[in-house]
Design brief:
2 domains; alpha/beta; 10 helices; binds S-adenosyl-L-homocysteine; two-stranded parallel sheet; DNA polymerase, domain 1; TIM Barrel; 10-stranded mixed beta sheet; single chain; 32% helix
């Protein structure tokens, strides 16, 4: 059985082959994305035979919610298990009127960033388009009907640019008016920074917001923290990032995990200034979120303030990310294939 959401064309072609008019496809989309239907039976304006055929041939859900956790700040995290037993996590964040979701693209991750929980056991496989869209729907189901998803970040488990072919159709479902209707400006893909894939992304017609995980101002330190940098190098990465900006007109975001005693010295801040001051970019600094089993430390408030002051005095456009969801291990870098979820920290 195929996943119903494996691509817009899959369902459209299937309906056409059976002689159904195109509006049936739109009705289905309305049921799934707007009315949040959970089964074909609910789709009362579709002919009964069509509902039966759909139920025979397609699955709407292929995951089981293994664990659902909610933090006092409103953040909710789901641990989903797919048909083959693979597990991923995804997150809903509430911030004022914002309703953001953070989704995963792979079971595990192959990048091996030394401070991140997602890659601790390597990668098993890419998620399919249907599995990526299903996370969006599962998270949307956590909201009351009057609330809609406003932002989507591809910052969960996995390296999105290593799974572009499955990710892009999923993001189109998210973006399309007949889908979730989230504006492309509010959809962010976060990448470890694979220049070849960034160039591929730049060449596509729809441009989403791109966030590049930088984490160090020089190649020696970046390669220590982000091992794939050994074969990439900052020069090529920044050239690809600049090209993405030239083509898309979208200001780039660079992410920087701040690790005490590792990349939080004055010299690192000055290095960042040199690298970014002539670029139309936002630097998003994420103080390290603790990962069980790793020994990195979050910098003290004073160290963070000092680092920030250097960047701001130099006129960089910076944002220091407030921690959300860390009590349930749902913050950046904390998502994993946990079998036994850790109890909420207080
Ligand atoms: N593979 C993508 C998405 C991963 S997670 C990428 O590398 O960008 C999104 C962000 O969280 C990345 O910038 C990642 O480096 C960061 N991150 C990973 N582990 C973290 C941790 N323990 N604390 C804070 N941020 C972390």
């Amino acid at each position: 059985m195929r996943h119903l959401l494996s691509g817009e064309q899959v369902l459209a072609d299937w309906l056409k082959r059976r002689g159904y008019p195109a509006y049936r496809n739109r009705q289905l989309a309305t049921w799934i994305f707007r009315k949040r239907a959970t089964c074909f039976d609910e789709m009362s304006n579709l002919p009964a035979v069509l509902r039966e055929e759909l139920a025979e041939q397609f699955r709407l859900w292929t995951s089981e919610v293994v664990c659902q956790q909610r933090a006092s700040d409103g953040t909710e995290k789901l641990l989903l298990q797919w048909l083959d037993g693979g597990r991923i996590e995804c997150v809903l964040l509430r911030d004022g009127i914002r309703r953001s979701i953070c989704i995963s693209t792979q079971v595990g991750c192959a990048m091996g960033c030394v401070f991140c929980a997602s890659g601790l056991d390597g990668v098993d496989r890419n998620l399919t388009t249907g599995e990526i869209v299903e996370q969006m729907l599962r998270l949307q189901h956590l909201l009351p009907e009057r609330e809609r998803l406003s932002h989507l970040v591809v910052m969960g488990m996995g390296e999105p640019l290593a799974n572009l072919d499955n990710l892009m159709p999923a993001l189109e479902f998210a973006n399309r008016k007949s889908g979730l209707g989230i504006s492309s400006r509010r959809i962010t893909i976060s990448t470890v920074g694979i220049p070849r894939a960034i160039r591929r992304l730049a060449a596509r017609p729809s441009h989403f917001h791109l966030a590049v995980s930088l984490h160090a101002p020089d190649d020696a330190l970046r390669t220590q923290l982000v091992p794939v940098n050994r074969n990439i190098g900052l020069e090529d990465l920044l050239a690809a990032a600049d090209q993405y900006f030239d083509v898309s007109g979208r200001r780039l975001t660079f992410e920087y995990v701040l690790l005490a005693g590792v990349n939080d010295r004055d010299s690192h801040a000055h290095g960042l200034v040199g690298m970014l001051k002539n670029r139309p970019a936002l630097l998003n600094v994420i103080p390290y979120n603790p990962v069980a089993g790793l020994t990195f430390q979050t910098p003290s408030a004073a160290a963070i303030k000092r680092f920030r002051a250097i960047l701001e005095t130099a006129g960089l456009n910076v944002h220091f990310r407030r921690r959300k969801g860390d009590r349930i291990d749902a913050a950046c870098g904390q998502l994993r294939r946990s079998t036994t979820p850790s109890p909420p920290r207080s």
